[in-house]
Design a protein that fits this description.
Length: 142
């Protein structure tokens, strides 16, 4: 029902269990769904910025770390999935490497979407990535 939104739904022939097998049959009477996003940005002693973001909902849990040099270029971008519907989702964490070396000032929403989202990416990784870049942009005035 969601083709090209993420690698899971774009590769249903490769997933080891379907969505309803993952979420189980438990009846949700009060807590239907929850989502939490958290982003912290700080300056290291070297003057570089570090941002740590986390995304947690009823079915997913992932975190990212982004470091940016004084000149505004991304020097590090790591992503880790702790919980997701299938192993195929965990592989999308490697896509963040495409953004290393990019200037935050020149990053477009479209490039971030192509790098992290779409049929071979992860909508949740894209979500927390965009939010984190937005926070870094606020800090440096972009």
């Amino acid at each position: 029902t969601h083709p090209n939104t993420c690698c899971y739904y774009s590769n249903l022939d490769k997933v080891e269990r379907r969505w309803h097998e993952y979420i189980g049959d438990a009846v949700r009477e009060k807590d239907f769904f929850s989502r939490h996003k958290n982003i912290a940005v700080w300056q290291k002693e070297s003057g570089e910025l570090r941002a740590v973001g986390s995304f947690l909902d009823s079915f997913h849990e992932l975190g990212i770390t982004v470091e940016m040099g004084k000149e505004g270029r991304i020097t590090r971008f790591d992503a880790d999935f702790l919980r997701a519907p299938g192993r195929i989702c965990f592989g999308t964490a490697q896509r963040v490497q495409q953004l290393i070396g990019q200037s935050l000032e020149q990053l477009t929403r479209s490039f971030i979407q192509q790098s992290l989202g779409g049929g071979s990416g992860c909508a949740h990784l894209l979500d927390i990535g965009q939010e984190t870049f937005g926070c870094l942009g606020q800090v440096i005035g972009v």
